[in-house]
């Protein structure tokens, strides 16, 4: 019954989703596989399987570039009269190793790039187009306590529906009862003395106070003990 003295009603609704999920998924799903492809290629290379690396070298012209570089070294050595020296073979070997390392670095960079592209595509599918809708409704009724706080000091809630532990003390000459009672929802459980609004409405209607939004009657005690007029 505490709502009688100041109730409040509220409700909320939250909705979230991804409006562009279908389009983004269809467009970028093929790229998500690159994450696994890149990671698998790196694992194979680091594990000693050079088949992917050899295919990459073939596709990017490694053999032709190495051959051209070797011919250049040979020509330079011949022009210097050192073609038959041990330095020619060593220079060609160093050049081949340098090319091998450069292509290996490039191949690993490509694999890492593929993995990153796949992860980015997955993140895009997950995050793009997200939305969140939240609605909140709140309605506060003044309650009898707040309602009475806005009217005169002599006004008191006297509707019997708001009371309990009601005991009649005596009856006025016109039949109006005087009672002791406690208010429902009053944590202090204070014992009050007064009348009932329904009886006042019948016997002394001029002493009625305003009615709350919830339909509970009140009494103006400044008028209860006065005659009408």
Explain the overall architecture:
By secondary structure, the chain is an alpha+beta fold. The protein folds into two domains: 14-133, no CATH class; 143-224, no CATH class. Helix content is 49%, strand content 21%. It has seven helices and seven strands. The strands form three sheets. Strands 4-5-6 form a three-stranded antiparallel sheet, with no helix packed on it. It has a two-stranded antiparallel sheet with strand order 1-2. Strands 3-7 form a two-stranded antiparallel ribbon. Helix 1 runs antiparallel to helix 4. The longest helix has 42 residues, at 86-127. The radius of gyration is 46 Å and the shape is rod-shaped.
On the 0 to 100 scale, the average pLDDT is: 78
Number of helices: 7
> Which spans of ≥5 residues are poorly predicted at pLDDT below 50?
1-5
Compute the number of strand runs. 7
Radius of gyration, Cα only, in angstroms?
Answer: 46 Å
Shape: rod-shaped
Instruction: Please give the order of strands in the largest beta sheet.
Output: 4-5-6
Percent in strands: 15-25%
Structural class: alpha+beta
Euclidean distance between termini CA atoms: 37 Å
